[in-house]
């Protein structure tokens, strides 16, 4: 027996097939989303800690385009911020209006450190350290040390080095005027990569601050490398989440590490930490176009408050330094200044 209305049957069949395809599509999308959510490391976003954001803790002052290549901040001098690009040094006035090139005999690949009224030129891989005065930018002293992986000047004649003790197979500290190494960094994985971090010195607090890169901890030391106190950053990542392997006697990362702290600087009695983690009172969308800075009191090793540095031209901050109430941040093509409020303890 034939169909009384073939076209009606065709329409119903097509509609039924379309519905099935839509349902299948939704199911596939749901499965794909579930797999993606399950495989993404959400540690950066799902955290129990809370940040404090006081009004006007950091106000945007201005930005200048500075597309001279990969640039870092060497330090501050003569009411200027000193910017290193390759072997070149440029002074940018703190009002962000004037620039002045500086001639300094700096080999390619060497790093400049400005510690006014002095400057240092260093390359840890070659055990190379030179010192001069910024009044004439002429090198007057050359030092020779063992290879080092981090350096922080503390006065005109002394710097603290982080070196690798090959016997202990771990990072240790040593002063340039001493042969005695100081072993204060706590090993969690391998002793070298797991203790990587940022070495800073506060003249005002007469304190060295070492902030671990892969965990929520910083050390405060006196100039004789005695530990004064241990502080905790506000996140909860207390163990370095890294995997290492040894090939031909060289220790390397076997997979990308989980960065907790991306960078630090000190000014006065304050430690500024560029954190990589999102607090419970922040959302991924909220922090997607900015970098967060957490502020700590060095003498008490306590958290104070936080503020944001906004992206420039869809690029992230590459580095920053603070001098008093002025913060200068470097981006791939911009230099940005923020004005910081007077720090207060926030309850």
Architecture blueprint of SSEs:
Blueprint: H1 6-39, E1 58-65, E2 71-77, E3 80-85, E4 88-93, E5 99-102, E6 111-115, E7 118-123, E8 128-133, E9 138-144, E10 150-153, E11 159-165, E12 170-175, E13 181-182, E14 197-202, E15 207-212, E16 217-221, E17 227-232, E18 244-247, E19 250-253, E20 261-267, E21 270-275, H2 284-287, E22 290-297, E23 302-310, E24 319-323, E25 326-330, E26 334-340
Antiparallel strand pairs: 1-26, 2-3, 3-4, 4-5, 6-7, 7-8, 8-9, 10-11, 11-12, 12-13, 14-15, 15-16, 16-17, 18-19, 20-21, 21-22, 22-23, 24-25, 25-26
Written account of the structure:
With 347 residues, the protein is mainly β. Helix content is 11%, strand content 44%. It has helices at 6-39, 284-287, and strands at residues 58-65, 71-77, 80-85, 88-93, 99-102, 111-115, 118-123, 128-133, 138-144, 150-153, 159-165, 170-175, 181-182, 197-202, 207-212, 217-221, 227-232, 244-247, 250-253, 261-267, 270-275, 290-297, 302-310, 319-323, 326-330, 334-340. It has a four-stranded antiparallel β-sheet with strand order 1-26-25-24, with no helix packed on it. Strands 2-3-4-5 form a four-stranded antiparallel β-sheet, with no helix packed on it. A four-stranded antiparallel β-sheet has the order 6-7-8-9, with no helix packed on it. A hairpin with a 4-residue loop joins strand 14 and strand 15. It is globular, with a radius of gyration of 26 Å. The chain starts with 5 loop residues before the first helix and ends in a 7-residue tail after the last strand. The model is unreliable at 1-42 (pLDDT under 50).
């Amino acid at each position: 027996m034939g169909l009384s209305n073939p076209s009606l049957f065709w329409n119903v069949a097509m509609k039924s097939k379309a519905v099935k395809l839509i349902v299948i599509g939704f199911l596939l999308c749901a499965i794909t989303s579930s797999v993606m959510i399950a495989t993404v490391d959400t540690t950066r976003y799902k955290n129990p800690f809370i940040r404090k954001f006081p009004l006007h803790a950091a106000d945007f002052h201005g930005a200048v385009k500075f597309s001279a290549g990969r640039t870092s901040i060497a330090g501050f001098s003569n009411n200027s911020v000193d910017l290193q690009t390759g072997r070149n040094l440029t002074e940018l006035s703190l009002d962000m209006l004037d620039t002045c090139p500086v001639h300094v005999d700096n080999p390619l690949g060497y790093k400049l450190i400005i510690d006014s009224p002095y400057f240092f030129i260093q390359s840890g891989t070659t055990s190379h350290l030179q010192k001069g005065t910024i009044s004439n930018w002429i090198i007057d002293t050359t030092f020779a040390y063992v290879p080092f992986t981090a350096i922080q000047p503390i006065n005109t004649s002394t710097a603290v080095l982080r070196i690798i003790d090959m016997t202990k197979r771990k990072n240790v500290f040593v002063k340039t005027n001493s042969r005695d190494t100081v072993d204060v960094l706590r090993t969690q994985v391998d002793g070298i990569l797991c203790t990587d971090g940022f070495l800073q010195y506060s003249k005002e607090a007469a304190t060295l601050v070492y902030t671990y890169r892969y965990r929520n901890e910083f050390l405060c030391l006196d100039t004789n490398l005695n530990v004064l106190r241990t502080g905790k950053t506000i996140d909860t990542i207390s163990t370095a989440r890294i995997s290492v392997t040894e090939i031909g006697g060289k220790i390397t990362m076997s997979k990308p590490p989980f960065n907790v702290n991306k960078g630090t600087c000190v000014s006065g009695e304050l430690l500024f930490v560029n954190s990589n983690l999102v607090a419970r009172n922040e959302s991924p969308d909220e922090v997607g176009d900015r970098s967060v800075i957490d502020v700590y009191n060095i003498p008490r090793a306590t958290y104070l408050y936080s503020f944001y540095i906004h992206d420039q031209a869809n690029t992230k901050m590459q580095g920053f330094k603070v001098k008093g109430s002025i913060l200068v941040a470097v981006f791939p093509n911009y230099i940005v200044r923020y004005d910081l409020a007077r720090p207060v303890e926030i309850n």
